[in-house]
Amino acid sequence: DCASEYLPEPQLRTMVDHFQKTADKFSDIYAKRHWLHLVESLARQLKDALLFEKTRIASWGDLSTGAYIDISRVYLESGDAQTALSWVEKISTGEVFMAAERDALLLDIYTEQGDVQEQLVIALRKFRRSRCKSAFAALLEVVGQDKRESALAQEVAVIHEQEGLSLNDAAFLVEMDLLAEANLYLLKRAEQFDGDRYEWLPPLAEAMESSGNTLTASLLYRALIDSIMRRAQTKTYSHGVRYLKKLDRLATTISDWQNHLSHSDYYQQLRQNNGRKSSFWGKYGK
Questions:
Q1: Which alpha helices (DSSP H) does the chain contain, by range?
Q2: What would the pLDDT profile of 135-167 be if each residue is shown by its tens digit?
Q3: How far apart are CA 17 and CA 30, in angstroms?
Q4: Which letter does DSSP use for residue 262 in this model?
Q5: Is 253:217 a contact under the CB 8 Å cutoff?
Q6: N- to C-terminal Cα separation, the chain
Q7: This prediction's pTM
Q8: How far apart are CA 250 and CA 215, in angstroms?
Q9: What is the pLDDT of residue 7?
């Protein structure tokens, strides 16, 4: 209850004692956990990490990754960064569940301890897990704003070194306004485009189109069209028609198809493989 935030510590301790005794009266585990959860809440307000730890163990027995993180966070909030670290370290290094939450907590712990080297390790791991502009800004808070250009150049090099296609990395390059780098990255991996990733491909295609990288834009739109045709859902045909008409326009700007099918060849192949989809072609002809 938020009202408990305004109570003096002796009253909070009395409430803890009452809730613990009430929990002891129940044999049903779910009823017991309800009251123990209230104890946890008060323990956190009191910054009594040991009470929080003991209550969580009493409530659940075997602890999960989430429990380790919760207990660690309360120790940190209570001013005991070292014990907080010891609880995070109980989590297997290979555990991927709640990895982002664990790293966020570790970063706070190392910041509290003033361990700049470990802060850098965690900040870089967090950033590389899912590159984006905001994550890069958080990384710069650790490495320093004066390292912005060198840090960005390093990450661009790392992105290009990976053979596989990461649409997240491509989006990061676009977000950082590195459109030439994004074009180079995408074009090299065009064979890996998957039109089923419709949450990623249209924004990338539009970015490439608006920046004049029309070959890459065309290949992205083709992947989307191929996906729409394969799934053969008439409700999505209007999107496919729109993409095909974009290809018609973009083709006039492309003189070198770089070993990819020309627009006319792609169109003929599309028509040959999907000629019976009269609903699609009817929309395209309008």
A1: 9-24, 29-46, 49-60, 65-77, 81-88, 99-113, 116-129, 133-143, 148-161, 167-175, 179-188, 201-210, 214-231, 237-251, 263-274, 278-284
A2: 999 899 999 999 999 999 999 999 999 999 999
A3: 19
A4: P
A5: no
A6: 62
A7: 0.80
A8: 8
A9: 84
